[in-house]
Amino acid sequence: MKELVVETDGLTKRYGERLAVDRVSMTVERGEVYGFLGPNGAGKTTTLRMMLGLIRPTAGSASVLGRPAGRPEVTARIGALIEGPGFYPYLNGRDNLRTMARYQGLPNAEVDRVLEMVDLADRAKDAFKGYSLGMKQRLGVACAMLGSPDLLVLDEPTNGLDPAGMADMRALVVALAEAGQTVILSSHILAEVQEICDRVGVINQGRLLRESTVAELRGAATLRIRATPEDTALAVLMRMAGDEGVRRVGNESLEVDLPASAAPEVVRQLVSRSVDVHQVTVAERSLEDAFFEMTGTTSTEQELVS
Ligand SMILES: Nc1ncnc2c1ncn2[C@@H]1O[C@H](COP(=O)(O)OP(=O)(O)OP(=O)(O)O)[C@@H](O)[C@H]1O
């Protein structure tokens, strides 16, 4: 069985009348990149803060590494980048990290290790204030990685970055994941989560709507086929995918509930019945489609960016 690094049970946070987090029960397994996905104000940061023991839940519980969240020995095993780290602007990157490392009783060699990891070793002697936003964020991740934490929590790590900075940050998370690091990454950017996460928790208005792998969330792929005569094509496809497994899409295409791997056999069967196959494409739902289906809202209403 997979080891759970995080497990929350009915985790709830109320601010006066506002229910910021509403009975969230989620799990994060060791070694995975968990995408915590939801629009602005959904309750992501509040949930993460409870996991880190920065705020207390109104009800429910969070356990991290098998212990109640907030215990000092647990917090010491988590590296977090939440709401931008506070660095000294006139100190260089390395000295900023050395200050943090000293505070945690870590040697200077550990600073050099994490600087390499985030690809900032070459710029380590430059003053922090001269760094680009992307470099500042990467230094924040380096800081969170000091002491090799069991869990890395990144709250909207690409927020405010330009496309190149975002790509760098995504590559960094992928590299960390490949090195076996467990990561929770919150984001409102669906395409980003789809690209780098193993599993996703979708949160909206404080409620966890779904927790699953990206593939499960998107559902099975379907085949889109344009073939004539359509009636014969329909009969062949229904024999292969069942009556319920074939639909007309638009004027000319048929959608079939079969995986991409079935495409060659589908074409063979159609051709053997003298059907002309004009086009076969694999139609995959994006995470964005799945999200909107779940929440029943449009991107403008949800302030989601993809
Ligand atoms: N300290 C607080 N006092 C009162 N309300 C709060 C507080 N912190 C958060 N909230 C409210 O709780 C809800 C959830 O906020 P939270 O910051 O957790 O959302 P989020 O998903 O992280 O959003 P974002 O992507 O904008 O950071 C919001 O309605 C927010 O206004």
From TrEMBL:
Record's keyword terms, sorted: ATP-binding, Nucleotide-binding, Transport
Presence of the UniProt keyword Nucleotide-binding in the record: yes
Coiled-coil ranges per UniProt: none
InterPro entries tied to this protein: AAA+_ATPase, ABC_transporter-like_ATP-bd, ABC_transporter-like_CS, P-loop_NTPase
Molecular functions per Gene Ontology: ATP binding; ATP hydrolysis activity
Domain ABC transporter as annotated: residue spans: 6-230
Family statement drawn from the similarity comment of this UniProt entry: Belongs to the ABC transporter superfamily.
This protein's name: ABC-2 type transport system ATP-binding protein
